[in-house]
C-alpha cells in the first residue's frame, strides 16, 4: 500500500564435484550474480503525538529494487518521562505480494544513566520464520511455523502497517482477517480490519480526501489508519499515540 513506483547452496555438491573433476567436460564459466539496483525511492517522516504533545518521530525510507524486492529502513524514537526508546529497523519484502523476507531491529532503551540494547532478527523461508535474538551478550535462535499471509509487526511502529494494508481488499465489504508475527515473542497474533468510510484531512498543507481503515487487534488493541489516494498512510492512531505525516519525497531512476 505504500505507493508503487510500482540462496541457497548447490543442492548437488557431489555431482558438481564429479563434473569439475572429469577431463572430458569443461566447467561452465562462473558469472557473478547481478547486484540489484534501486528503481524508486520514497522518504517519509512522521511526528508522534500524545495529548497534543510531541513524544517522538518515525523516519522511513522505502526503496524498490529491480529484483522484486522492497526494503524499508526506519528509525523510530519514542520519549517518555522515564526513558527514551530508539528502534532502528529494516524490513525486506517481496514487491508483488508484500510477503516479508527478512527483518532486523536494533533496540535501545536509555533510562537515567543506564542503557539496554536488544537486537532481534527474522528470516522467512516460505512459512517458516527463523527468529534470532541478542541481548547482554546472550544469543538465541528458534524456528516458528506461521500461516500463509502473515505480516511482521511490532508495537509502536507505524510503517509495518503497509504489509497488512496491501492485503486488504478495498472493494470488499465487512471485516477482513489479519495476521502478523510478533518478532519479540514469536507469537502469531490475529485481528480484523475494515474500511470505515472517508474523511478530508490537511495533508502537508493540502485538503486531502482519505480512506479510513480501522483495525481491532488481539493484545495490541485498536488502530485507525488514514490513507490517501497515493496509498500513503498520512495519519494513524494506535497505542494512545497519533502519527502524522510531516515530510514526504519520492524519486524514480530514469533509464
Got a strand count?
Answer: 15
What is the C-alpha radius of gyration, as a whole number of Å? 21 Å
Question: Which strands sit side by side, in order, in the main sheet?
Answer: 8-7-6-5-4-3-2-1-15-14-13-12-11-10-9
Mean pLDDT: 87
Describe the structure.
With 255 residues, this protein is mainly β. The chain has a single domain (36-252), classed as outer membrane lipoprotein receptor (LolB), chain A. It has helices at 13-21, 161-166; strands at 38-50, 53-65, 69-79, 84-94, 100-111, 114-125, 128-135, 138-145, 151-152, 176-181, 188-203, 206-217, 223-227, 233-238, 241-252. It has a 15-stranded mixed sheet. The longest helix has 9 residues, at 13-21. The two termini are 25 Å apart.
Compose a concise summary of this entry.
This protein has about 260 residues and is mainly beta. It has a single domain, classed as outer membrane lipoprotein receptor (LolB), chain A, CATH 2.50.20.
Secondary structure topology:
Layout lengths: L12 H9 L16 E13 L2 E13 L3 E11 L4 E11 L5 E12 L2 E12 L2 E8 L2 E8 L5 E2 L8 H6 L9 E6 L6 E16 L2 E12 L5 E5 L5 E6 L2 E12 L3
Amino acid at each position: 500500500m505504500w505507493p508503487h513506483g510500482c540462496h541457497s547452496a548447490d543442492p548437488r555438491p557431489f555431482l558438481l564435484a564429479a563434473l569439475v573433476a572429469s577431463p572430458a567436460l569443461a566447467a561452465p564459466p562462473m558469472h557473478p550474480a547481478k547486484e540489484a539496483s534501486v528503481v524508486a525511492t520514497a522518504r517519509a517522516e512522521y511526528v508522534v503525538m500524545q495529548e497534543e504533545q510531541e513524544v517522538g518521530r518515525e523516519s522511513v525510507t522505502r526503496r524498490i529494487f529491480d529484483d522484486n524486492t522492497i526494503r524499508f529502513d526506519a528509525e523510530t524514537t519514542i520519549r517518555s518521562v522515564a526513558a527514551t526508546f530508539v528502534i532502528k529497523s529494516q524490513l525486506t519484502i517481496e514487491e508483488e505480494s508484500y510477503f516479508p523476507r527478512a527483518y532486523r531491529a536494533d533496540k535501545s532503551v536509555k533510562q537515567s544513566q543506564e542503557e539496554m540494547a536488544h537486537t532481534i532478527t527474522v528470516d522467512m523461508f516460505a512459512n517458516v520464520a527463523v527468529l534470532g535474538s541478542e541481548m547482554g551478550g546472550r544469543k538465541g535462535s528458534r524456528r516458528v511455523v506461521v500461516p500463509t499471509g502473515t505480516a511482521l509487526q511490532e508495537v509502536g511502529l507505524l510503517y509495518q502497517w503497509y504489509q497488512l494494508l496491501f492485503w486488504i481488499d478495498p472493494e470488499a465489504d465487512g471485516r477482513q482477517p489479519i495476521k502478523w508475527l510478533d518478532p519479540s515473542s514469536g507469537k502469531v497474533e490475529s485481528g480484523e480490519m475494515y474500511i470505515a468510510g472517508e474523511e478530508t484531512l490537511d495533508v502537508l498543507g493540502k485538503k486531502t480526501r482519505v480512506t479510513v481503515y480501522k483495525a481491532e487487534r488481539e493484545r495490541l488493541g485498536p488502530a485507525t489508519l488514514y490513507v490517501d489516494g497515493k496509498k500513503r498512510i498520512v495519519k494513524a492512531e494506535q497505542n494512545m499515540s497519533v502519527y502524522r505525516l510531516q515530510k514526504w519525497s519520492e524519486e524514480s531512476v530514469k533509464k
